[in-house]
Amino acid sequence: MPLLTLQDAELSFGLHPLLDRAALAVDDREHIGLIGRNGTGKSSLLQVIHGTTQLDDGDIKRRDGLRTVLVEQEPLLPPASTMRESLALRGKLHAPSSDTHDEREHWRREARLVEFLHRFGLDEAMPPAMVSGGERKRAALALAFALSPDLMLLDEPTNHLDLDGITLLENLLRQQPGSIVITHDRMFLDRVTTRIVELDRGLLRSYPGNFAAYEARKADELVAEALANRKFDAFWKQEEAWIRKGVQARRTRDMGRVRRLTDLRAERAARRDRQPSVAMTVDAAERSGKLVAELEGVGKQFGERAVVRDLDLRIMRGDRLGVIGPNGAGKSTLLKLISGITEPTTGEIKVAGRVTSLIELGAGFHPEFSGRDNIQLACSILGLSDEETRAKVKPIIAFSELGDFIDRPVKTYSSGMYVRLGFSVATCVDPDVLLIDEALSVGDEHFKGKCLRRLNEFSEHGGTTLFVSHDLGSVRTMCSHVVLMDGGEIVEQGPPEAVADEYLKRIRARAEDPMQMRRRGTADYPVWGSGEIEVEDVLLIGAEGRPGRLFQTGEDLTVRIRYRALVDARSPVFGIGIYRSDGTYVNGSNHLWRERPIEFGAVGSGETGEVDMHLGAVPLLAGQYYLSTFVYDHSKPVPTAIDHREHVRTFEIVDARAYQHGLLTLPSVWRVRRTPAGTKTAREEESPR
């Protein structure tokens, strides 16, 4: 049975149809990429599936007990003293009732929340008011995975995430029972999705496979659609010419042809034409002097947390400056300091000329005002005269392609429509400096192309651009100079290729190295590393000495790794991680970090061998588990992956006695001492192990 089905779904905003008798079925284990142009209703569809928005007409049927979790593009964290408390409020992780099952489930979710916060690299004690946009997105995703939904609904999940975060999200999402993802990140769609669903002019069209397969089939469809429309229009024009002959058309025997023409007119009027593009040229304006911004010793603190530290930076007219770095590095704060949104705690900032910014979706817009009113308001704030504002309104509206939505309150806009309006205003008022923080990652491909052409024209006329992005491809092509931030400091700056390579080196130097990830053979789960040694097999051997996958709690268990050295290697260390099927990290161990370590030293090419981890009486309680194996080079200051394999073996533990519940069985002795009323003698009873 499908997780949910959508039949004859209708949803509109005013006179604008978002869903027009649309149909969709979502099966278990499907990962769907939901794509379409900005403003077509993708986010509204996720809200319908989640149950926060109702259809105007049609049916949605959900499997009994279906659990969904929605992560919005810009998730909100409720006010609280710590991140963990805020997420507990967001996820409604209320205190458990007196019911034992509810209590166990409550603490299980709490434990999973802490686990996923750590996996996403977040401090559970951090105040939510002090986090960056990337950290806020990581926190919302951590909560979503902790809630273990049957169907996860993600709206632009890669926005604000750094490369580590995106890779972790990809790996976790593959293990989910099902998901629907809105994103304009093609690489993410290719790596994660099993089906593409396009929302186009009110209809949902399904394409099996990833985004690359969709592109190939869609190109053929568009050619066929254009050809059919041309044939239809030729026939329609022929019939229109005939009807204008007058008398002949009114003959009784020709009334059928008249009725057919009436039907042709209705069909053509109802045709869902693709939206045209609108071109726009740059208005060359007088630019300010050579130096447009200078920062000296700039620092910014939120409470005791230093977000930017002792930063020095000079930005010249015509610079196309890219800012890259991990989440929480201080990139967005840097743009806010330059734009004047945030004041520095220490240091001095000098800015010359008009600065416009596109930093946070909806920032600077009044939600109750229409798009047109907000354009006039923005022009006024930027110091344009009434005459200049009137001259700018029409080209801004044309570039945004918002159509009738321009006269509706912006609180009704989708995230993509916010970007269209914000980018159009920011670039059409002749700024000297333009600040962009990941905003273009929201736009559809058509609008992205327009934006990139607009930015190129802006730079050709001497404009200065500061561009924050985690898309290294865009940084390399759009920027003339790049700075790398980490821990609130500029740690590297220079040509795009050199700084991007340095960023990747820093990522690779971390213990968990997602940038070295690569597939081997037909592995269903990630495998990465330098490859000097390869794990050929992993066996679980029970009490009878035979490999298996089903074991008893307390049974003697050995995990055996068989390896082969493909080339010479130095100081390899083998490790094993044990996880519960829901991703809970149970235990990790290796042969080096022990009171009596085993050191390999050098390993020669062609060497084969076995490494055993003997658990003895396995303490795991009933459930399904899996193993990951780690082979790392410990000859370097920071251990690096040689052969890291996720989810290499699954196994199941059964516990016939069921004396304990939870994750592990712990040897224990219970004692009870009771003193009856009116006596001084205590009675004691003991239950041995």
Mean pLDDT: 80
Number of domains: 4
Spatial gap, N to C terminus:
46 Å
Low-confidence runs (pLDDT<50, min 5 residues)?
Answer: 272-289, 511-523
Oligomer status? single chain
The total strand number stands at: 32
In percent terms, what proportion of residues is strand? 25-35%
The CATH superfamily title of the largest domain: P-loop containing nucleotide triphosphate hydrolases
Shape: globular
- Helicity level: 25-40%
List the helices and strands and how they pair.
Layout: E1 4-13, E2 16-26, E3 31-35, H1 42-50, E4 57-62, E5 68-71, H2 83-90, H3 100-119, H4 133-146, E6 151-155, H5 163-174, E7 179-182, H6 186-192, E8 195-200, E9 203-208, H7 211-243, H8 255-269, E10 291-302, E11 305-316, E12 320-324, H9 331-339, E13 346-351, E14 355-358, H10 371-381, H11 386-400, H12 415-428, E15 433-437, H13 445-460, E16 464-468, H14 472-478, E17 481-486, E18 489-494, H15 496-508, E19 517-518, E20 527-528, E21 533-541, E22 550-552, E23 556-565, E24 569-570, E25 572-580, E26 585-590, E27 602-603, E28 608-617, E29 623-633, E30 640-654, E31 670-674, E32 683-687
Parallel strand pairs: 3-7, 3-8, 5-6, 6-7, 12-16, 12-17, 14-15, 15-16, 22-30
Antiparallel strand pairs: 1-2, 1-4, 8-9, 10-11, 10-13, 17-18, 19-20, 20-30, 21-23, 23-28, 24-27, 25-26, 25-29, 29-30, 31-32
Helix pairs in contact: 3-4, 7-8, 10-11, 11-12
